[in-house]
Amino acid sequence: MIIQCGIFALMKRIGLLILLVTIFSMPAGMAQKKSKVLDALTPAQSEELMAEAMRHYVQEEYEEAILIWEHLIQEVPKEASIFYYLGKSYLAQDKKNLAFQNAKEAHLLSPFSLDYGLFYADLALDLRYNEEALAVLKKLLAFDETQPEVNIRLAQAFLWADQGDEALSALQKADAFVGDYPEIIRTKQFIYLKKKDVRSAFKEGEHLLEIIPEESLFSWDQMEIVWDLVHGREFKMLFDQIQNRFPDQGQIHLLKSKLFIEEKNLDSACVEIKLGAVDSRVSAEVLGQLALHAIELVKSKEDWSHAHEMVLDLKHIFPEEARFVALEGDLWISISKFQEAQTSYLQAARMGNTKFEVWARIVQLDFELNVLDSAIVHCDEALHEFPTEGFLLFQKGFAQYLQSKNAEAIASFEKALPLVKDTDGWFTQLYGLLGDAYHSKTRYLESDACFEKVLAINPGEEHVLNNYSYYLSLRKDKLDKAAQMSKSLVDKFPENGTYLDTYAWVLFQQKDYVGALKFMERALKDEKQNSSTVWEHYGDALSQNNRILDAIKAWKMAKTLEGAREILDNKIKLKRFIEN
């Protein structure tokens, strides 16, 4: 892209404009030649038509000009100039393929014409017919290998063919004519970088700064390549030399900061980033990326202070850049100051032009701080800016689900469904939670379908295997399938109380009361997972194994825990298991 812009800007600057050739300026010999070819038209008529077509062309009445030239071609099929101007007219109408066909014909009829050849080559390059462009340009150079306008185009064609050496050679041949044109220097830098000849690229940049001090060493597009090529101490001396010559070049400070980051020298990296930020030509985006990498080096309170000072400086220099406000939020996160981080992220988000990731962090912090109402509000606010981000709808639904607002959660989850791909990390979570929500509303077919969709992609998904099997046990439906799913979890996690309780309850529903009691007893050993439900199930299993007194003790224990059900009173009173 760089060379293309440079070439056309250059051609405007050096005045490579094709002069309009009218019939009145044609040599007499050509007119005489025409008179021998024309049968239907007299020479006077031919001249009159050509002049009329040119008048239409100059007045930008291309359709009228095309009609006349198309007629003239029938009468004079070997006249290159007609094809040439016909092609120019089609190009003016943005009919590039028709323009190309006529330009090619003009070149074939008059292969020695530089104008026709360049027109044909330009269209070939524009249409990415690179081999044709190379062929015609090489043919033109056979007459004069120093032609700058040919060599510049040839460099572009070689670049597209990934032939950097040939492109560089073509540009060097054009040097004598184009001199120190900035876009040509940038193109040479690009070629050197593609060849991984970094020092030559820097040398070209220094040459550009000598001519135009207000320029930057590299374009910012080129800097993306430079980052990947500059490593290690070998470049420090080069950077120091360039900095001594051009002390106001912020790019050098940024490159030095990159080397310091690689060395894990946070203090020096922060200093260079702050110095680079002073240069108004420096890209805020690149500064932000470097600052983010520097922040990742924070290991101590002292490191944190250096990084925070750097971020505060960047916020001061770029008061309208939300990225640096968000960076301060990242710093607060690194020391678990979630409330302060939330404040920074919200400020950044409300400055506008922020990335989706900032809103994602805001909502994540809402969950971390357990402010679910805020999570819902912030999801809605973010959706105004990012209406197609299904993850926000999923997060909103998740917050509603945690509040037991299952109808609202279902609505949010269903809106997210068209926006999720099975490759997204939250795909299984979405369908898993939607399955739970559907089940809570007795929408069993839809619930089961959600779980099956997850298991088709990830057969070992723990949340779904446990909940799906438990729901089937509650419904006494497909108990063999439920036992198979639940047993796979117990085999994999033999000490997990939740999974053991689920499997025990499936066995209970299959009337395997001895097996159910065995797994209930194992579940109770996981004290972290003990709940009112587990103790109630334990009592139920004891009851069905005719251990009534032990069952009553278990039910009484269940009553003391959060989430105890009213049915426990009846079980204790009647001293027996009661079907739900």
Provide a short characterization of the protein structure.
This protein is mainly α and 580 residues long.
Supply database-style keywords.
580 residues, Serine Threonine Protein Phosphatase 5, Tetratricopeptide repeat, mainly alpha
Describe what you observe in this structure.
Helix content is 73%, strand content 0%. It has 580 residues and is mainly α. Among the domains are: 1-154, Alpha Horseshoe (Serine Threonine Protein Phosphatase 5, Tetratricopeptide repeat); 230-354, Alpha Horseshoe (Serine Threonine Protein Phosphatase 5, Tetratricopeptide repeat), CATH 1.25.40.10; 483-574, Tetratricopeptide repeat domain (Serine Threonine Protein Phosphatase 5, Tetratricopeptide repeat, Alpha Horseshoe). Helix 20 (338-349) packs antiparallel against helix 21.
